[in-house]
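Exercise 7.
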Amino acid sequence: MNNSKRGIVLVFTMGFILALVSLALEFHRVCQRRMETIRTQVDKVRSELLARTGIALAREILKTDRNGYDWLGENWHQEKLFKINGEEIKLVIQDEDGKVNLNGILQAEGKVNTQLKDLTERLFLVLGLSGNLLDCLLDWVDEDEMPRVFGAESMYYRTLAPPYQAANRSLLFLKELSLIKGFTKDVLKGDQERPGLMDLVTLASDSKINVNTCDPIILKAMGFSEIEVNELVAQRETGPLEETYLMRVNRNVFLANRGLVAYRSNYFSVTVEVRVNTAPVVKKRALLKKGDEVAIIGVETL
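Solution. The predicted structure, written as tokens, is:
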């Protein structure tokens, strides 16, 4: 074989080897990507299972709380951190009965819970918000298409881009508030000077206010003065409030809100945070406590 033929064979041989090496490298990269995808999926499944474990732990914590009151000094209110097989589960339990239930204002057949309606309006005013928001809220959840004086029905929402209809039913998620006229991001999330409405309201509660767990702003919306609110908050740090103490602080305000005041709660929520490698999961569940049983009644993924 002459030199030219040997050169051609060598070139083809080297080309063939390079092709095999390229294929091997590409196969390796595909396998790596596939393994990364599999690991990510496994991490997501593990995170989901740990989140469910966290919710089960929260239910057990609430089951052990058997006294006749609920207040912020109890074990269930303390942030919890569990470690299972090296993975961390963070739990935060909140009292939903310490918030204003927006779904409780309009009851069956359009009947209005006047006390809760008035409290909600006062809450808006204490936050420095327009009282007109209440009309917009009620128009969103009532069954008709007749706007209130400062409200808005589907006729208004159809002028937006994109257009949509008023729900004309109870709120399903707190995030739904952002669809309602006037409920801007600043209103819902707050700013450096005031908290957001989202932190003070709920969609699942007894439509009462647990004065042992509610935000001081809600106490102020009830009618207690700044000095009285500070006194109540200071008392809550030593133990749960009782009717006699509220009567002593301000008899008239207590009697005006008596139908709303509660000292123990049935509705809670738990927020669970877990992370397995690069697969974080944050979940929120609404819980209903009846006696020694704690049931999951709703699902909200943050």
